[in-house]
Amino acid sequence: MQDILSLIQDPSAWIALVTLVVMEVVLGIDNLIFISILTNKLPPEQRERARRVGISLALIMRLALLGTVAWIVRLTEPVFDIAGHGFSWKDVILIAGGLFLVWKATKEIHHNVDPADHNEDFIAKSATSGFASAIGQILLLDLVFSVDSIITAVGMTPHLPIMFVAVIAAVTVMLVAATPLANFIEKNPTIVMLALAFLLMIGTTLIADGMGFHVPKGYIYAAMAFSALVEVLNMVARNRRERKRVH
Predict the structure, then answer these.
(1) Does 181 have pLDDT greater than 80?
(2) What is 43-79 written as a DSSP string?
(3) Considering the domain boundaries, does residue 104 fall inside one?
């Protein structure tokens, strides 16, 4: 209790908390895009419930992982070598998650380009096979992002209470933003393709990180923000042309 009170009175702890919350929210954008695309494949009456259940279970998983933070940190230690390069369990998780994300995004892009070929749409098949399947996929990908974000958080602050508060705050933002983002993506088909391209890029970045080629996340998010801005301008231009045509 005394440690918590000392943290509350420490200005540097508040700075670390704000920084961690912002970082967790930004890192959560990747996960939120995936959740939006995946749950939009479910029947309309199940979508919002799937988002809430998936994100809530993801919060529980992240808090549980924080409780094993000493073990998580050890995941960065090399466990085997390939061609002279040491790979840790963190690298293995990032590579596996990146491959999973690239595969998912590629399959869905294929379906959007050729919607008649439903047999190739893995996401549609798995989502329609049941509510539990969508939840499982949400948790699987969140595990990858959780390990990465927790290791980053440990490097920013040694205080577990700050990490717990930051994770809870970031997941609360995800819960609030999940449905509006999913609805926006569903109403704008061009946004779907842009979001899938983001997932493809994020998956490739995860694979590169796991292979030892670190790509600064600032470049990734700057590219995503620029692409999103261009698409917003295109949407504004299309809406104005449509209004002009109607009048």
Answers:
(1) yes
(2) -HHHHHHHHHHHHHHHHHHHHHHHHTHHHHHHTTSEE
(3) yes
Report which of 174, 208, 237 is spatially closest to residue 27, judged by C-alpha positions: 174
Q: Tell me the three state secondary structure of residue 80.
A: strand
User: Is residue 227 in a domain?
Assistant: no
Which helix (H) or strand (E) segment holds residue 85: the answer is strand 85-88
Please, is 208 exposed, middle or buried when counting C-beta atoms within 10 Å of its C-beta (0-12, 13-18, 19+)? Answer: middle
Average pLDDT, rounded, for the chain: 77
Question: Which of 142, 145, 7, 150 is CA-nearest to residue 66?
Answer: 150
Determine the 3-state secondary structure of 81 from DSSP. Answer: strand
Take residue 203 and report the two structure tokens written for it: 């998956």
225 or 74, which is more confident: 225
Higher pLDDT, 209 or 10: 209
Domain that holds residue 154: 2-215
What digits encode the pLDDT tens for the residues 85-112? 788 877 888 888 888 888 878 887 777 7
What is the tally of structural domains in the chain?
A: 1
Classify residue 105: in a domain, yes or no. Answer: yes
* 158 confidence band (pLDDT: 50, 70, 90): low
Residue 188 lies in a domain: yes
Q: Measured in whole angstroms, how far is the alpha carbon of residue 194 from the centre of its chain?
A: 15
Region of residue 212 (left: phi > 0; alpha: psi -120 to 50; beta: else): left
